[in-house]
Every structure is written in structure tokens, then in C-alpha cells.
From TrEMBL:
It is found in: Cytoplasm, Cytoskeleton, Cilium axoneme; Cytoplasm, Cytoskeleton, Cilium basal body; Cytoplasm, Cytoskeleton, Microtubule organizing center, Centrosome. The keyword Cytoplasm applies. Keywords: Cell projection, Cilium, Cilium biogenesis/degradation, Cytoplasm, Cytoskeleton, Developmental protein, Dynein, Microtubule, Motor protein. Coiled coil: none annotated. It comes from Macaca mulatta. Pfam families: DLIC. GO terms for biological process: intraciliary retrograde transport; intraciliary transport involved in cilium assembly. This is Cytoplasmic dynein 2 light intermediate chain 1. Belongs to the dynein light intermediate chain family. PANTHER family: CYTOPLASMIC DYNEIN 2 LIGHT INTERMEDIATE CHAIN 1, DYNEIN 2 LIGHT INTERMEDIATE CHAIN, ISOFORM 2. One of its GO terms (cellular component) is cytoplasmic dynein complex. It comes from the Eukaryota. The keyword Cytoplasm applies.
Length: 338
């Protein structure tokens, strides 16, 4: 499916009629379901194998050209981090948003999934901003300033946060399963995700198959994709689905990490983020690194070796590398099946 290039002149403040929204997150976490709901497509979601693309259109008014939103989805959880570079280019950067979908029903996978995906994405976005800065310093500077827009100038946490370089929304999926967790577990997950979202200047919300919750999520995605007005509603009650728009939370409301005071001193951490990670992983220890590595690419496991299949796999890997290289040169010419 051919992509269409970004409209608008460089750094002149002109409104751009195209935006890109990139969905990353937990494997089988519900990313495709959210995209289909946002696009009003009544079809069963199919597993996302690698990187998938689709788009939506929305008219601003009568007899006006339709805005276009490009929706990208990364499959495989954290196993395909290299593909993050495909949709995020110096051309798409200024109209780019990120949606991180985390499966609340699998709390032991939550932190490593979140950490690996956000670190890999942030690293690539930072590189693209530097690249943009060499050709268009004004646009790069505007991007760095824009990330502070969600935080009021007099917000008490302004000096304590580190906003993500592009707009970020964190969605906790499968709330219907999560709501049956023990109260203490729900408290730790909610407070931890609130801290991470607020630290990165992100919005945070929980969803499930509930139509009411999906409609709220759809409103948030529409804001990213088409510039619809932001919702100002907020819910921080851990006994209800969280819904916190970027900039409306605070560290004082979130409170300290949920651990006995006499235990905090025993946790050696170099930053608040690391402290929250240690508290979280004490209750929800992640799978061992070896296990994660094994999951990363079972196709390379010797026990499943088949010469013909392996030869095809090598060919596909080479095609993928070529695809990634060509996409970095001209993203306008990429064609992906939606």
C-alpha cells in the first residue's frame, strides 16, 4: 500500500494534513484491536507478524480535503526492535506520535517490555532529531520545545521530569482481567505506570473490550491522528480504569514507591526511575534474560533446523535488510500490506 509524503513547508508553522501514529507494546496485547476500533473497521484482528501499515482519513469540514493518519504497528513484542527505524524518519518526525500498549494481565512482562521498547524508540528518535537539526535547526528546536507543551509552566514537577521526544500515550490493556488482581498488586502496577507516564510527560489510560473504554481510547488516538481536542477528564482511582491526560498528574499525588520505609534504604538506585523499577520487580520479577533471549527468535534455534526453510529464512532476512535500507532513503515509496 503506497504511502503519501508529508505536506507543509519546513519549520514555518504551517498546519500539516498528515500525521503518523506508531503502536508498539506487548505481544498479543490488543494493539490491532485498538487500531481497528479507531478506524471503525468491523473485522477480526489478525496477528501482526512484523511491521504493518494502514491509514485513516478524516474531513475537517464540508468541502475540505481529508486529513490522513498513517497507522503503524510493530508486532512481536520486543523481538523486532530493529524495525522501529522504518516508520520513524527525519521526514515523519514532526508529526509523529507513539502509543505503547502494555498487557496488564501479564505484570511480570510489563516492565521489561516497556523499558526495552521505550529505550529503543527514544534512542532512534533522538538520532533523527539530531539528523533533522543538521538540515533544519529551526524545526529540531521547535520539536524540543513542543514536548514541554503538556506541562504547565508553574507545574511543581517541571524540573523533575524528562519528556519523551515525541507525544507518548501509554495504554494498559486487558483491564477486565487486571481488575480481579489482589488490591496490593493493582496498587503497585497503577502507581508504577503513573510514575513512568508522568516522568515521560505521557498520557496513561486503561482499556478492555468494554465499548465505553474503547470509545475513550478512540478519542485519545483521534487526537494524536487528527488533532481532535484533548480530553480533560481524569481518573486516578486504582479501583477504576485509570485515565490521566499528560500533564495532569503529579509526583506528590502518585506518592513514593509502595515499599516499607525501612526497605527503601536497602534498595540501591541511581535515579527515581531505577528505584521504581526495583520496587516493581521485587513484586513482579521478570522472566530471566535467557528465557527472553530464547523467545527472541525461535526460528534460529538449531533444534528446529530444516535446510530448505533455513535457506528461505536467510533470503527473507536479506530482503528485510534491503527493505530497511531502502525505506530510510525514501519512506514515500514503501509499500506494506495492511
Amino acid at each position: 500500500m503506497p504511502l503519501i509524503g508529508i505536506n507543509g513547508s519546513e519549520g514555518d508553522g504551517a498546519e500539516i494534513g498528515e500525521k503518523s501514529v506508531f503502536f508498539i507494546g506487548s505481544k498479543n496485547g490488543g494493539k490491532t484491536t485498538i487500531i481497528l476500533r479507531c478506524l471503525d473497521r468491523d473485522e477480526p484482528p489478525k496477528p501482526t507478524l512484523a511491521l504493518e501499515y494502514t491509514y485513516g482519513r478524516r474531513a475537517k469540514g464540508h468541502n475540505t480535503p481529508k486529513d490522513i493518519a498513517h497507522f503503524w504497528e510493530l508486532g512481536g513484542g520486543t523481538s523486532l526492535l530493529d524495525l522501529i527505524s522504518v516508520p520513524i524518519t527525519s521526514d515523519t518526525l514532526r508529526t509523529f506520535s507513539l502509543v505503547l500498549v502494555l498487557d496488564l494481565s501479564k505484570p511480570n512482562d510489563l516492565w521489561p517490555t516497556m523499558e526495552n521498547l521505550l529505550q529503543a524508540t527514544k534512542s532512534h528518535v533522538d538520532k533523527m532529531i539530531m539528523k533533522l537539526g543538521k538540515t533544519n535547526p529551526k524545526a529540531a528546536s521547535e520539536m524540543r520545545q513542543k514536548i514541554w507543551n503538556n506541562m504547565q509552566k508553574d507545574h511543581p514537577d517541571r524540573e523533575l521530569i524528562d519528556p519523551f521526544p515525541v507525544p507518548l500515550v501509554i495504554i494498559g490493556s486487558k483491564y477486565d482481567i487486571f481488575q480481579d488482581f489482589e488490591s496490593e498488586k493493582r496498587k503497585v502496577i497503577c502507581k508504577t505506570l503513573r510514575f513512568v507516564a508522568h516522568y515521560y510527560g505521557a498520557s496513561l489510560m486503561f482499556t478492555s473490550k468494554s465499548e465505553a473504554l474503547l470509545l475513550k481510547i478512540r478519542g485519545v488516538i483521534n487526537q494524536l491522528a487528527f488533532g481532535i481536542d484533548k480530553s480533560k477528564s481524569i481518573c486516578v482511582d486504582q479501583n477504576k480504569p485509570l485515565f490521566i491526560t499528560a500533564g495532569l498528574d503529579s509526583f506528590s499525588q502518585i506518592g513514593s514507591p509502595p515499599v516499607p520505609e525501612n526497605d527503601i534504604g536497602k534498595l540501591h538506585a541511581h535515579s527515581p526511575m531505577e528505584l521504581w523499577k526495583k520496587v516493581y520487580e521485587k513484586l513482579f520479577p521478570p522472566k530471566s534474560i535467557n528465557t527472553l533471549k530464547n523467545i527472541k527468535d525461535p526460528a534460529r534455534d538449531p533444534q528446529y533446523a530444516e535446510s530448505e526453510v533455513d535457506e528461505m529464512r536467510i533470503q527473507k532476512d536479506q530482503e528485510l535488510e534491503q527493505y530497511k535500507r531502502s525505506s530510510s532513503k525514501s519512506w514515500k515509496q514503501i509499500e506494506l500490506d495492511s
